[in-house]
Amino acid sequence: MATINVRRDVKDSFYRYKMPRLLSKIEGKGNGIKTVVPNMAEIARALSRPPSYPTKYFGCELGAQVKCDDKNERYIVNGEHDAERLQTILDGFISKFVLCASCRNPETDLIIKNDDIMMDCKACGAQNMADMRHKLSTYIVKNPPAQASKNQRKQRKAATAQTNDLGGGFDDNEGGSDDDIISQRINKEAAGLTMQSQLAQEDWSEDTSAAAVAQRLKELAVKGVGAFGDDNDDDDENKYDLFGAWLEEQVDNTNDSNAVTDVSIILKAQELGVYGKYKACQVLVQCIFDESIATQIPKRTKLLRKFVTGEKHQKAVLGGVERLVGLEYKDSLMKKVPAILMKLYDADVIDDEVFIKWGEKPTKKYVAKDVSKEVKKAAKPFLEWIATASEEESEEESD
């Protein structure tokens, strides 16, 4: 899908903030004619806004009724509207409800305070009030966005297709704010800022409210140590954090998990001394897969077989799936757990006995016990099928 700059007035091809070009599809005829925006969900992810916001904005600007079906990701505007016209209207939405009024960067989160909409910029730290005169503001106040999570920020980074390490491509006509940001980044680079500290800084740029910090600590505390580790391995936990950070950086920089080759992943694992370790399997699953894991597994079968060499490794893969589904993509992947496990089964990565043993009872080894219970409950259709298949195979062997 073709991408364009979030700010279309910026002509720099290296501008870091990208989004998919809006597509439109005309359906129906006569009084029932309507325009469907098939990629509204992808556009909304790039802008870090709920898809209903820009769709409702179209309705306000065009004086048309709209329909938002979040479950099926189907967004409709009544009437016939071409893609270029909708793209121009979307520019207005971005200017009013996405771009920071101070630095004109789209790294903002919406915060509702006393029925006012504040735009909290994670690039320059400014907080500005959105245009409360617009009709959409009333809808936003009544339907506030969910609090931005670490995973949502990762999606926004991936969707905007960062093109270089310094994050260049700022508009040269925008005054002193962007110059200050670039200078800060150059100074940090000159001081030898490591990849790990850069990632740490990105974490600190997130929501630091007491509730958000407590939630992140709760998620990390499930394992007892780092974001990728557990307390049953004697190896240096830092190796796995570095491995995970490297994988995430590669995926973010390419905006495509498949672009990170199997060979480069294996070489990095060997360099860090985690290749052949069962915990590396959990990190691998968390970092190279996303919402499309069911379609990604077949493409990574060879890589998984290289990493998975024993029962502990197989259990770690399932632990990675638990974390991916239960902590990162719960809404979109929970119902797809049986399909995900079937793909692992078809890839011949996990033994039948390991599947059955994993599904026997929830544990708190990789996620909170209630999350583990929910994932394994969702996996019940597959687990029942694999148990039946194993019993029939045993009977055939006995005969």
Could you explain how this protein is built, in words?
Keywords: GTP-binding, Initiation factor, Nucleotide-binding, Protein biosynthesis. The protein is α+β, with helices and mostly antiparallel strands and 399 residues long. It has two domains: 146 residues, 2-Layer Sandwich (Defensin A-like); 190 residues, Serine Threonine Protein Phosphatase 5, Tetratricopeptide repeat. It is built from 19 helices and nine strands. The strands form three sheets. It has a four-stranded antiparallel β-sheet, covered by helices on one side. Strands 7-8-9 form a three-stranded antiparallel β-sheet. A two-stranded antiparallel ribbon has the order 1-2. Helix 16 runs parallel beside helix 19. It starts with a strand and ends with a helix. About 15% of the residues have low confidence.
Question: Descriptors for this entry?
Answer:
399 residues, alpha+beta, Defensin A-like, Serine Threonine Protein Phosphatase 5, Tetratricopeptide repeat, 2 domains, eukaryotic initiation factor eIF2 binding, Transl_init_fac_IF2/IF5_Zn-bd
Present the secondary structure layout.
Layout: E1 3-5, E2 18-20, E3 25-27, E4 34-36, H1 40-47, H2 52-62, E5 66-69, E6 74-78, H3 83-97, E7 108-113, E8 116-121, E9 127-129, H4 135-142, H5 150-159, H6 176-190, H7 195-204, H8 210-221, H9 237-254, H10 262-272, H11 278-288, H12 293-296, H13 301-307, H14 311-328, H15 330-333, H16 337-346, H17 352-358, H18 369-378, H19 380-398
Antiparallel strand pairs: 1-2, 3-4, 4-6, 5-6, 7-8, 8-9
